[in-house]
Amino acid sequence: MRYNLFASALKLLNSTKNHNLFVVNVRSLTGAAQTNDAVAPTTRPPPTESGNHEEEQRSLHIAVIGVPNVGKSTFINNTVNHRVCPTSAKVHTTRQSSTAILTTGQTQLVFYDTPGLVTQHEIRRHHLDQNFKSAYRHAIQHADIIAVVHDASNGWTRKELHPTVLDTLKAYSNLPSFLVLNKIDALKSKRLLLDLIKTLTNDTLKADKRGAQGAVSLTKEVRINKRESSWSHFSDVFLVSAVTGSGLHELQNYLVGQAKPRVWKYPADVRTDCSPEAQIVESVRARLLDYLPQEIPYNLKCELEYYSVEKNVIYTSVQVQCPTTRIERLICGEGNGKLRQITERVTSDLVEMFGQAVSLTISTVSKGIKKTAS
């Protein structure tokens, strides 16, 4: 594994006033930016549609894994340049694997968004389905390459890969993998950046300063760690901002270069294999996670009541089943104010997701009493 870190980009890393961040792979280091875990528009042009010459088609299937709340869904949304996966600030927003598709030129990239890797204790705590742990395995079995997304902003965990991630990489060591360091604004120095890369790649990289204009290349060094907390078989390391999309264009180019000659699995105009109904329900549940405290939103059940498309307008209704009237009152707020606020936010998400007008109604029910906001 070789890295070339350009001196001009490294100078930007030391600037904290404009919060410049960076993306690293085997070729270069470029600017990026990071704020929070929400989707924001990127400045990249939309992907171009391809022709139907099957003999020229190429594709790559990417399983995106990582522990909860590292920004996997946001990473995928901005890489495909479209809101496909619901996001929130809480853990376990993604509860089942979903697919996001980017078709650019003659290449189709298929991303599998997977639930955060969890332990049995976390499944019980957050009321997760028992097949939660098997969802990522199914995605990896259909993938050509594994993308490990890691949160570089968490000072407690950024220096080691979680055991569930390492176990997964070992179980599927036959597949190539690359590391995506997300939320890089927390890294304030060049040394911290290089040390983090060195640590997470199992300390197999040794700085070797040479070349013109301060370029730095890294050569391999073998070392046995006392505690297994990193992976020595990553083919590439990227530092990106999943929120703004900065750095993702270069990563996208890398994936296009890895694509295999074969017929596309999906038509060029398809963004996801998830049904609109499922996307609507998951979008409501994701915003409930944002608006409700602690463990409350994990105890709610969302069900689609109605879905119809008329004259290019989506009309839909989702019911939120609450375990107690107290929780229902918490969701609705005074005069149903909070419920209306949640409905407006989800509607905005759905308009961005479907690219058309949406009329959404969210109702709550508890002990036979139903309240509605639209």
Notes on the protein architecture:
By secondary structure, the chain is an alpha/beta fold. It is 28% helix and 25% strand. The chain has ten helices and 15 strands. Strands 3, 4, 5, 6, 7, 10 and 11 form a seven-stranded mixed sheet that branches. Strands 12-13-14-15 form a four-stranded mixed sheet, covered by helices on one side. β12 (301-310) and β13 form a beta hairpin. α8 packs across α10. It is globular. Mean pLDDT is 77; it is low at 1-51 and 206-225.
Topology summary:
Layout: H1 7-13, E1 21-24, E2 29-32, E3 58-65, H2 72-79, E4 98-104, E5 107-113, H3 120-125, H4 132-141, E6 145-151, H5 163-171, E7 177-182, H6 190-200, E8 205-209, E9 216-220, E10 234-239, H7 248-258, E11 260-261, H8 276-291, E12 301-310, E13 313-321, H9 325-332, H10 337-354, E14 357-366, E15 369-373
Parallel strand pairs: 3-5, 3-6, 6-7, 7-10, 13-14
Antiparallel strand pairs: 1-2, 3-11, 4-5, 8-9, 12-13, 14-15
Helix pairs in contact: 8-10
Characteristics of this structure?
374 residues, alpha/beta, seven-stranded mixed β-sheet, four-stranded mixed β-sheet, 10 helices, globular
